[in-house]
Design a protein that fits this description.
The protein is an alpha/beta fold and about 375 residues long. It has two domains: about 5-40 and about 280-375, Aspartate Aminotransferase, domain 1; about 40-275, 3-Layer(aba) Sandwich (Aspartate Aminotransferase, domain 2). About 40% of the residues lie in helices and about 15% in strands. The chain has 13 helices and twelve strands. A seven-stranded mixed beta sheet has the order 2-8-7-6-5-3-4, with helices on both faces. A three-stranded antiparallel beta sheet has the order 9-12-11. Strands 1-10 form a two-stranded parallel sheet. α5 (about 95-105) packs parallel to α6 (about 120-130).
Length: about 375
């Protein structure tokens, strides 16, 4: 019997594959997963325990509890001057499910989605599962910004949406105002949806980072997905949300309800009040770690575009004359350091280093990487 061809064509996560290989080898410093090393904030855990005691163990409303959705809308409105209502918010099983629900809601078979690369590998798979076609827009020659001529070359009569991430995974770079305006103009002129993965937008390291939600002209075509995983160290909770104009949100809700029914009741109750939690200490620690890693990479002569958000750096390894996969495997086997090859993100010539690990792990990882780089240059 024939299986779903889109599913058969899917490859297991390259990030998880590298991480598993590091565990198998043993003794590795693994700088692969975007897994914060902090604990979930105590107020969230306490509210969740209280919700369990109060019997929140049954079906929640499909879209999520109204108090949490109202808080989400108010939070985003305060940040961006928007006017979203609770009815335009869907609480989802992390941002991944929000992306899947959005793509399944807007795509018809053969519709194309432009994705600036490097990009999180799951996007391509979710687009294929929704019957769409992933169209990569390369940014590595443009400082990981969106060049007008490259965007124009990707646009066709089949283009339905542009999917962007800012700050970006794997580069940590933010899209500057000019890049965002090019996306917005293309969306307006070609009647496209814009899907913004904003899961790292509270982990930025300068005050003037532009945001697509600030553009009022995109209100009816912008879909924003968010997650509590990264800023609140809640990757295992699987709670996120999607925000969209009411007609779009209604279609997304149909998909969401069919896929997961709703997000666990007690987890949602635990997240009420989450925006009152102070994440500044975590952000500052990530900033310190970023600066440490950048300093070490500079001394090694590894060129890196300075990341202004998330917790990744993306140094070039092109000068060593090997693929990113070969570099990562040699680094892991010879120096016992695990990083992610850029081939996992649709480009070549780089590796992703994650710095949301302890200072001790980062120091040892950088020491081992430095010795490995020196061995390649002898």
């Amino acid at each position: 019997m024939e299986m779903n061809r889109a599913v058969v064509a899917m490859q297991p996560s390259g990030i998880r594959r590298i991480t598993a290989e590091a565990r198998r080898i043993g003794g590795c410093i693994s700088l692969t997963l975007g897994e914060p090393d902090f604990d979930t904030p105590a107020p969230v855990c306490e509210r969740t325990r209280r919700a369990l005691g109060e019997g929140y163990t049954h079906y929640p409303p499909n879209a999520g509890y109204e108090p949490l959705r109202a808080q989400i809308a108010a939070h985003e409105n305060a940040r961006h001057g928007t006017d979203y209502t609770a009815d335009e918010v869907i609480v989802t099983a992390g941002s991944t499910e929000a992306i899947a629900s959005a793509l399944l809601a807007i795509l018809n078979p053969g519709d194309e989605v432009i994705v600036p690369v490097p990009a999180f590998g799951l996007y391509e798979q979710l687009i294929a599962l929704a019957g769409g076609v992933d169209v990569p827009l390369h940014t590595e020659a443009d400082g990981f910004q969106i060049a007008q001529e490259r965007l124009d070359a990707c646009l066709t009569p089949r283009t339905k949406a542009i999917l962007i991430t800012s700050p970006n995974n794997p580069t940590g770079c933010v899209l500057e105002a000019a890049s965002l305006e090019r996306v917005a103009r293309a969306a307006r002129e070609h009647d496209l949806f814009v899907l913004l993965d904003a899961v790292y937008d509270r982990l930025v390291y300068r005050p003037d980072v532009p945001h697509l939600m600030d553009d009022r002209t995109l209100r009816d075509r912008l879909i924003v997905v968010q997650s509590f995983s990264k800023p609140y160290a809640m990757t295992g909770w699987r709670v996120g949300y999607g925000i969209a104009d009411a007609p779009v949100a209604r279609q997304m809700l149909k998909v969401h309800a069919a896929l997961v029914v709703g997000v666990s009741a007690f987890s949602q109750r635990g997240c009420e009040g989450i925006f009152d939690v102070d994440i500044e200490p975590m952000r500052l620690r990530y900033l310190q770690r970023r600066d440490y890693v950048l300093g070490r990479l500079e001394k090694m002569g590894l060129e890196t575009v300075r990341p202004d958000g998330a917790f990744y750096v993306f140094p070039s390894i092109a000068r060593f004359g090997m693929t990113s996969e070969a570099f990562a495997l040699r680094l892991m086997r010879e120096a016992k350091v695990a990083v992610v090859p850029s081939s996992c993100f649709g480009v070549e010539g780089f590796v992703r280093i994650t710095y949301c690990y302890s200072d001790e792990e980062l120091r040892e990882g950088m020491d081992r990487l430095e010795r490995f780089v020196e061995s390649l240059e002898r």
